[in-house]
């Protein structure tokens, strides 16, 4: 038997609103049986701070800093914490909860989907492995994160190299479909990242920044050779095909589909009502 064929969309660099709207539209179309399971790669123009669905924007984010750095800002439909999307490859996976290879629990589905990311890191020559919180303290930290910053600690089955997190992912399940998307860090400007959040005082901010250095790392800090966005696309496309045992075929959006996504981007993800609702 041949491998199952999934769609592959390479969106290039899009606005934050279009990026989130397209992920949502793909979930809808897959739930309606209009498209096959899909993997999508994309970048951000402009570089953007995204926050998780449940985060309190006004309380946690320094919007003056967001503006000064000329960043976009958007709330994701998925959970998790703040992510600076700048020097990274972003991926999304859209697949039915009923797919025979998808476990019922969120954490186990993470493990299956993240197998593709693991293989991608390995093809870049990096010894990545899955994070599994071992102690009670680590597990409690996932339930009650001390930091608003996503890469501050690995969750279940996120990818780690040399003990530090290299990819952060978030998942939602709606209409019988799993949407998992995440960031694969190529480079990271830590000063910029930490300037975007509010802290009780400067001392707390510096302490968290120091701690963060031990917990997260970008590919180009540890890779023997520089990895470009194009290199990452090749490696992780191959990784997903191998890790999920699928064949990826290019999928082009129709004009009607693009118009639908633009409409959703404008009406939902660009609106203050969505982005500042908590």
UniProtKB/TrEMBL annotation:
EC number(s) recorded for this UniProt protein: 2.3.1.181
EC top class, as a word: transferase
A Gene Ontology molecular function term of the record: lipoyl(octanoyl) transferase activity
Gene Ontology terms describing biological process: lipoate biosynthetic process; protein lipoylation
Record's catalysed reaction(s): octanoyl-[ACP] + L-lysyl-[protein] = N(6)-octanoyl-L-lysyl-[protein] + holo-[ACP] + H(+)
Assembly with partners or alone: Monomer.
Note: In the reaction, the free carboxyl group of octanoic acid is attached via an amide linkage to the epsilon-amino group of a specific lysine residue of lipoyl domains of lipoate-dependent enzymes. The reaction proceeds via an octanoyl-thioester enzyme intermediate.
HAMAP family according to UniProt: LipM (MF_02118)
Protein name in the entry: Octanoyltransferase LipM
């Amino acid at each position: 038997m041949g491998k199952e064929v999934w769609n592959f969309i390479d969106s290039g660099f899009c606005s934050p609103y279009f990026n989130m709207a397209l992920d949502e539209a793909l979930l809808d179309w897959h739930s309606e049986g209009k498209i096959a399971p899909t993997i999508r790669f994309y970048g951000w123009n402009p570089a953007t701070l995204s926050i998780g669905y449940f985060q309190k924007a006004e309380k946690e984010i320094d919007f003056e800093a967001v503006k000064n750095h000329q960043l976009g800002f958007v709330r994701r439909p998925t959970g998790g914490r703040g992510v600076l999307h700048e020097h990274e490859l972003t991926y999304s996976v859209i697949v039915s909860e009923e797919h025979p290879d998808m476990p019922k629990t969120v954490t186990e589905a993470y493990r299956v989907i993240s197998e593709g990311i693991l293989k991608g890191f390995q093809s870049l020559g990096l010894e990545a492995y899955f994070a599994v919180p071992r102690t009670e303290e680590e597990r409690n930290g996932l339930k009650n994160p001390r930091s608003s910053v996503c890469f501050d600690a690995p969750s279940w089955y996120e990818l780690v190299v040399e003990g530090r997190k290299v990819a952060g992912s978030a998942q939602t399940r709606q209409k019988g479909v799993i949407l998992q998307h995440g960031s694969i860090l190529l480079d990271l400007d830590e000063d910029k990242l930490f300037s975007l959040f509010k802290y009780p005082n400067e001392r707390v901010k510096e302490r968290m920044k120091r701690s963060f250095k031990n917990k997260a790392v970008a590919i180009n800090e540890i890779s023997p050779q520089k990895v470009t966005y194009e290199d990452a696309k090749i490696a992780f496309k191959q990784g997903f095909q191998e890790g999920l045992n699928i064949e990826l075929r290019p999928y082009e959006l129709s004009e009607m589909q693009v118009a639908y996504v633009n409409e959703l981007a404008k009406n939902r993800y660009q609106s203050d009502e969505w982005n500042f609702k908590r």
